[in-house]
Fold this sequence. Notes:
Elements: E1 2-3, E2 13-14, E3 16-18, E4 21-23, E5 46-53, E6 57-64, E7 70-75, E8 87-91, E9 96-97, E10 105-111, E11 115-123
Antiparallel strand pairs: 1-2, 3-4, 5-6, 6-11, 7-10, 8-9, 8-11
Amino acid sequence: MVQLTECYGQPNDVFSFSEGVWSGGSGVDPYPKRCMQVENGTEIEAQVWAKPQPGEAMAVFVVNSLLSSKAFEIDLNKDLNMTGRSYHVRDLWGRQDLPGIVAKTLVVDPVVNHDSRMYLVKPAGFSILV
């Protein structure tokens, strides 16, 4: 999992799930505070979660926690460390392929407040049947 933030001077933080705990650090007791941990009273505006899939694909989950709609722009190479030049995108919940080929940036139309979207992004040339 990769969190798209600029925590600790890094462009992205990579977390792993082990023994029931999400951690990006040493796991020293108590588990170190990480960027994905929310302080009481902190508002999280939006989140992008990603998980590698077979065939160099990436599952992308977008969450809007704002009180209004929010559009997203996700740089597939920089933010998700994908290495292709162009991609096919499938809206998993809408059960349809998005038209055309995405070159570098996945642009997500405004997501209404407290809603989410889920996509499968595959390098162009791979089948995206789901």
